[in-house]
Design a protein that fits this description.
By secondary structure, this protein is of the alpha+beta class. It has three domains: 2-77 and 204-229, no CATH class; 82-123; 128-198, Sandwich (Immunoglobulin-like), CATH 2.60.40. The protein contains four helices and 15 strands. A five-stranded mixed beta sheet has the order 2-3-4-5-14, with no helix packed on it. Strands 6, 7, 10 and 13 form a four-stranded mixed beta sheet that branches. A four-stranded antiparallel beta sheet has the order 9-8-11-12, with no helix packed on it. This is Carboxypeptidase-like regulatory domain-containing protein.
Length: 231
């Protein structure tokens, strides 16, 4: 079943197993379900790459997944070939050499107005920001390494060992709180400087895995062929 690496795929569990996970007999990499007479593998902490690697070598598997792992395209990190890296590095090196030659021929100009403009822009950017602090936890207590992100930006921070976080944002910004195995939660920043959040567990499904393959378009296949030349 090596087609998984060529096409986009996602996983589905159309007939979830309703047996109690904790009541199942512990087995290697999962638990044994006496009703199905199968070992249900625990994929809740597995990466997309690990899931695909297992399914490529095992058919008719039963698995336990977080809800967010299902019904979406699995993502495989692409490895860049050494040839492609060397070619790219050579081109960048050539461009860099030419850039140094060109810039060395242009006299540098420093104007006071540029400094003033830069200072004004920086002031506008930081205006309205305030420090938000709080604790992220679940029903068992504080969460370590839970992420806190200002929605629509790349600004992210993580909670410490006591679940504490600190982040700068503006009023009416939206903070997204997320932790593996928990449902993401969004909160709009109001006039409060402290926001404590309790995340709820993500719905977990277990059962026979159904693999849905999405064949690439003709154009995508041609692009893939070109990429393969550089591997």
């Amino acid at each position: 079943m090596k087609l998984l690496l060529r096409n986009k795929i996602n996983l589905s569990i159309p007939k979830p197993c309703h047996e109690n996970w904790e009541a199942m007999t512990p087995a290697e990499k999962g638990r044994f379900c006496s009703v199905c007479s199968k070992t249900v593998l625990d994929f809740t902490k597995a990466s997309d790459k690990e899931i695909i690697s297992y399914l490529n070598n095992n058919k008719n598997a039963c698995g336990r997944f977080n809800n967010y792992q299902l019904n979406r395209d699995l993502i495989i990190p692409k490895q860049k070939s050494s040839y492609w890296f060397i070619t790219t590095a050579s081109v960048l090196g050539f461009l860099g050499l030419n850039s140094q030659t060109v810039f060395s021929q242009i006299p540098l100009k420093t104007e006071q107005t540029d400094k003033i403009k830069t200072t004004q822009d920086a002031t506008k950017t930081t205006l309205g920001l305030k420090k938000i602090t709080g604790v992220v936890s679940d029903d068992l207590g504080p969460l370590i390494k839970a992420s806190v992100t200002v929605k629509g930006t790349t600004k992210t921070t993580f909670t410490d060992f006591d679940g504490n976080y600190t982040i700068e944002a503006k009023e009416d910004d939206i903070l997204i709180f997320h932790y593996i195995g928990s449902k993401p939660q969004e909160i709009i920043i109001s006039n409060k400087n402290q926001i404590n959040v309790t995340l709820l567990p993500e719905f977990v499904l277990a059962g026979e895995i159904v693999i849905i393959e999405k064949k690439k378009t003709f154009f995508a296949r041609q692009i893939q062929k070109i990429r393969n030349w550089f591997r």
